[in-house]
Structure formats: structure tokens, C-alpha cells
């Protein structure tokens, strides 16, 4: 968005296009409250609903509408705003938009421009704008709750608090540099260190749980992996409750990934069935196995399905579990045919015994218990155990940078390194400021607002 364009009066349809009972057209800018006169209607009083007939350039009636005006800065965008509540006829909406476009000084808004103007006028902040994006895109109740919390300041408040505390410590430190000859408290340096350590500990807790907010926002990537003919595709179909994947007794049937979207405990889940693992000379099958390994590496959760009737299933599970550092579940399939007792082999692995379960994907036995265990895992993801929930990679990267600089400041303990400590404080402050959109923000803003609808 160009700065020059921000001075123009913009308009856009704020409700979904198509036929409806009511449609809302928003206008924002210096000429917003002149719109009624441009349609041959009487002016409106601020914050009062007025019923008016709108006319086109030839004086023909367009529609019987409701007009509501807001005088800036007491408006959503901080500018003068007019809302036109018209009947939701596509023909009516199109005629009003065309009439507005023909007026001098008015233009159609760009994607997200109303919210961008609100940001520029101090009516919102970048984290709240990101929360609004997430609210518009929310598919689950949990996503909605997280998005509205961020809009209300759940991210901004703790980050702003940390930033102010670091600045306070920086001020004290710079005072000790500038007034080195004065009598300052002997405990000043220790007080600063204790405060920074407290801030750092809080940040580290937030960083440790940073993937939780991203998982809720973007969804959980769950990969089904395992040896050939273990029953992965049957398990996928059972969990999806529909025949999403082809099932066959022939080894190597699944050669490419099959994805199914689910919702578990309020979190959207993409469940991916991958090619079965085995030693093979078939280049196509080898590529499928390679892709399965890549998918497991990038997954948030890996479900390993093995054929429990085959000797060596535990070793196979341990081998596949080494593909990923994510949470691992092992489903020992074909319970109805009798299982080989090899669970003791898994003791040497990194999979908790509670994550190893026996099932029969064909008959459906054991799947209810597994789904309950999966829901518990999701519920643990949902727990807000930290003072801050990070929902984007940029939040996590900036917070990690701030943690790095504060840790570096604590490692600089010699009295003659005070200026270096101050520099680390400044760098940490800048990293936190990036989360709040106070520096280096233009590229981030353009990316955020490009995902909005035109009238938002």
C-alpha cells in the first residue's frame, strides 16, 4: 500500500458477495460523510441510523437504505466513516459501487486497507490485526478463542511488559555508565541481573510452548507411517470414517501421500497416509518411501502402524520412530489375528508405553481407546500454561532473538563490559519491538493485509 493512497476516500463491500437480505458498503476517509449528498440524500447525524432513498446520477431511485455515519477519530478506522446498509441484491450493490467509483476523490479499497488505516491511526496494533486475520479464517471454536484473545491483547500485553522492563533495566545501566563517578547503590548491578533473569525465564517458558499457538492456528500435521501391508490405509479410513485411501493386500499399494482433514479437540488435523516402508529396488516405490520419511520429519505427530502378527514389528517401529523428533504413537495392528509379544523391545526407544496401543483397524477394535489418547494429547496442546501464546513463526523468531540477547547480557559479567551489556539490552528491545510492529514492519504489514478481504 502506498502512503499517498492513504489520503483518498475508500469504499468496498464489507459483506460477502452474492444475494442476501442485507449488504453493507463501507466508506472511509475525508469525503465519507459527503456520500449521502452525492446520492441525492439528506446528510446524517453521527452514530445515528438514518433511513434514506439513494438516487443515481440521473435521479433514478437506487434503493431504500440505512445510513450510519461516524466522525473520526471515534470510528473503526480513526477517519470519518459511513456505512450503507442496502438490500443484498447484486444489481443494487453493483450500481452503488459504480456510482461511488465515478465520484472524484473516491476509489475502491485494497485488501485489508480499512484495517491498515485503523493501524496507522492507532486504533489497533499489528498483533490485533493478525488476530483479526485468524478470526476471519477460524474453522474451529478453539481457533476462534485464540484469535479473539490475541485481538484483545493476549500477545501484545506480555511482550510490551517485557519490552518496558528491559528498557527500564537499560535506563538504570546507562545511568551507571553516565554517572560512574556518582555514588550509586552497590546492589544496582545485582538488581538489574535479577530482573533480567526473571524476564528471561518468562520468555523461555513462552518460547518452549511456542508451537502450541501455531498448531491451533495452522492445524496439526499428523503422519501415518509404517512398513508395507501393516494396515496404514485401513487405519486412515477408519479414523476418517470413509474410504479415503485404497486398501489392498498387495504390498506397495500406497505410493504417494493421501491426506484427510479432521478436527480433534478443536484443532484442525491433516492426517497423511504415506508409502509403506521396506527394502525395494523399485525407483517409484523408493521415492514414495523417501517422501514418507520427509513427511515424518516435518510432522507434529507421527502414528506408526505395524503388523503385530509379524516377528520384528518392534524393531521396525523403532527404526521408523528415528525419522522424527515429534511425538510418536505406535499402533500394533491386526490384534484380531494374534500379536507377537515384543513390547519389551520398545523399552530402549523414546516412545512412552502409554503411546503403544493394540488395535484391529479392520474390525475397529482399539480405535476408540486410541482416539481418546489422541484427544488427550490434543487437550495438552490446548492448555495455556504460559503468559504468552505465539501464533506465527515471526513471533517465535523475534522472541528467540530477544532470549539470545538477554542470555548474552547475563554472560557478560565483568564490570568493564557494561556497555556491551547495554548493547545486548538494546538488541533485545528491538527484537520485542518487531513482534509489536514498531520497527521493520512494512513487509509484515503488506503480507498480513493482503490476506484480508477487500472490505475489511
Topology:
Layout: E1 9-13, E2 20-28, H1 35-38, E3 49-55, E4 61-70, E5 81-88, H2 90-102, E6 106-108, H3 113-120, H4 126-137, H5 141-151, H6 156-178, H7 188-208, H8 210-218, E7 220-225, H9 232-240, E8 258-264, E9 267-273, H10 283-298, E10 301-307, H11 313-321, E11 327-333, E12 356-358, H12 367-382, H13 393-411, H14 418-435, H15 442-450
Parallel strand pairs: 1-6, 7-9, 7-10, 10-11, 11-12
Antiparallel strand pairs: 1-2, 2-5, 3-4, 4-5, 8-9
Helix pairs in contact: 4-5, 6-7, 6-14, 7-13, 13-14
CATH class of the largest domain: Alpha Beta
Number of DSSP-assigned strands: 12
- Count structural domains: 3
User: What portion of the residues fall into strands of 2 or more residues?
Assistant: 15-25%
What is CATH's topology name of the largest domain? Rossmann fold
Structure commentary:
This protein has 456 residues and is of the alpha/beta class. It has three domains: 3-124, Probable tRNA modification gtpase trme, domain 1 (Gyrase A, domain 2), CATH 3.30.1360; 129-209 and 389-436, tRNA modification GTPase MnmE domain 2 (Four Helix Bundle (Hemerythrin (Met), subunit A), Up-down Bundle), CATH 1.20.120.430; 221-382, P-loop containing nucleotide triphosphate hydrolases (Rossmann fold, 3-Layer(aba) Sandwich), CATH 3.40.50. Helices cover 43% and strands 17% of the residues. It is built from 15 helices and twelve strands. The protein has helices at residues 35-38, 90-102, 113-120, 126-137, 141-151, 156-178, 188-208, 210-218, 232-240, 283-298, 313-321, 367-382, 393-411, 418-435, 442-450, and strands at residues 9-13, 20-28, 49-55, 61-70, 81-88, 106-108, 220-225, 258-264, 267-273, 301-307, 327-333, 356-358. The chain has a six-stranded mixed beta sheet, covered by helices on one side. Strand 3 (49-55) and strand 4 (61-70) form a beta hairpin. Helix 7 (188-208) runs antiparallel to helix 13. The longest helix is centred in the middle third of the chain and has 23 residues, at 156-178. The protein is flat and about 85 Å long. The mean pLDDT is 83.
Amino acid at each position: 500500500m502506498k502512503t499517498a493512497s492513504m489520503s483518498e476516500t475508500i469504499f468496498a463491500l464489507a459483506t460477502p458477495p452474492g444475494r442476501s437480505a442485507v449488504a453493507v458498503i463501507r466508506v472511509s476517509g475525508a469525503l465519507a460523510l459527503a456520500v449521502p449528498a452525492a446520492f441525492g440524500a439528506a446528510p446524517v447525524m453521527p452514530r445515528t441510523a438514518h433511513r434514506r432513498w439513494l438516487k443515481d446520477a440521473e435521479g433514478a431511485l437506487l434503493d431504500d437504505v440505512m445510513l450510519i455515519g461516524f466522525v473520526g477519530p471515534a470510528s473503526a478506522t480513526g477517519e470519518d466513516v459511513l456505512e450503507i446498509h442496502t438490500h443484498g441484491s447484486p444489481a443494487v450493490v453493483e450500481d452503488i459501487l459504480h456510482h461511488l467509483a465515478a465520484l472524484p476523490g473516491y476509489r475502491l479499497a485494497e485488501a485489508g486497507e480499512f484495517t491498515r488505516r485503523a493501524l496507522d491511526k492507532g486504533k489497533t496494533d499489528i498483533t490485533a490485526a493478525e488476530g483479526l486475520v485468524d478470526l476471519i479464517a477460524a474453522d474451529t471454536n478453539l481457533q476462534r478463542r485464540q484469535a479473539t484473545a490475541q485481538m484483545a491483547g493476549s500477545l501484545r500485553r506480555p511482550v510490551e511488559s517485557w519490552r518496558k522492563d528491559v528498557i527500564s533495566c537499560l535506563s538504570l545501566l546507562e545511568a551507571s555508565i553516565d554517572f560512574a563517578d556518582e555514588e550509586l547503590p552497590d546492589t544496582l548491578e545485582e538488581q538489574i541481573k535479577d530482573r533480567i533473569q526473571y524476564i528471561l525465564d518468562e520468555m523461555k517458558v513462552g518460547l518452549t510452548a511456542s508451537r502450541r499457538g501455531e498448531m491451533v492456528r495452522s492445524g496439526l500435521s499428523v503422519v501415518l507411517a509404517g512398513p508395507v501391508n501393516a494396515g496404514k490405509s485401513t487405519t486412515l479410513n477408519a479414523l476418517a470414517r470413509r474410504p479415503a485411501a485404497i486398501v489392498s493386500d498387495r504390498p506397495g499399494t500406497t505410493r504417494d501421500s493421501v491426506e484427510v482433514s479432521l478436527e480433534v479437540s478443536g484443532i484442525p488435523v491433516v492426517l497423511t497416509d504415506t508409502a509403506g516402508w521396506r527394502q525395494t529396488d523399485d525407483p517409484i516405490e523408493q521415492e514414495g518411501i523417501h517422501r514418507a520419511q520427509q513427511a515424518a520429519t516435518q510432522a507434529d505427530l507421527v502414528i506408526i502402524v505395524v503388523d503385530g502378527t509379524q516377528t520384528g514389528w518392534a524393531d521396525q517401529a523403532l527404526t521408523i520412530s528415528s525419522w522424527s523428533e515429534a511425538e510418536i504413537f505406535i499402533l500394533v495392528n491386526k490384534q484380531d489375528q494374534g500379536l507377537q509379544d515384543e513390547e519389551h523391545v520398545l523399552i530402549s526407544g523414546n516412545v512412552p508405553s502409554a503411546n503403544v496401543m493394540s488395535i484391529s483397524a479392520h474390525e475397529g477394535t482399539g480405535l476408540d481407546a486410541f482416539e481418546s489418547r489422541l484427544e488427550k494429547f490434543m487437550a495438552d496442546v490446548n492448555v495455556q500454561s504460559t503468559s504468552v501464546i505465539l501464533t506465527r513463526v515471526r513471533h517465535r523468531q523475534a522472541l528467540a532473538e530477544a532470549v539470545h540477547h538477554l542470555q548474552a547480557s547475563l554472560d557478560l559479567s565483568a564490570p568493564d563490559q557494561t556497555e556491551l551489556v547495554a548493547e545486548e539490552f538494546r538488541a533485545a528491545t528491538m527484537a520485542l519491538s518487531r513482534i509489536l510492529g514498531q520497527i521493520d514492519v512494512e513487509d509484515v504489514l503488506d503480507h498480513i493485509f493482503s490476506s484480508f478481504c477487500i472490505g475489511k
